[in-house]
Hints:
This protein is mostly helical. It has one domain (about 20-105). Helix content is about 90%, strand content about 0%. It has two helices and no strands. The protein has helices at about 1-15, 20-105. The longest helix has about 90 residues, at about 20-105. The radius of gyration is 45 Å and the shape is rod-shaped. About 0% of the residues are buried.
Amino acid sequence: MGEEYHDVDRRLWHIGKEIPLAIILAIGLQTFGAVWWFANLSAKVDNIDAKVVGLTQSTVTAAEARGATEINQMRNIEQDRRISELEKELRNLIQQHQQAMMMFRNNGGRR
């Protein structure tokens, strides 16, 4: 009984001389090729993942740049408004100064 089991076991797991060495090498090369292909695929996926992260970061940076540009535009508008007000006040001061000088000249420099 033990010998029969041993013979059956030997027949199931036995590689005989019928299998050519070329087939064994072909299977080995295919296995190696598959592992190499998956390694390259993994590297490509990692590369694409890094590019996606970079694009995402540049998108955030672009959004921040747009926000900064809008803030600068708002500041420029406010500064333009203030400059206009100061120019108006300066014109009023110049006009008042000219009126005061005319009055001074008309009065002959007297108070």
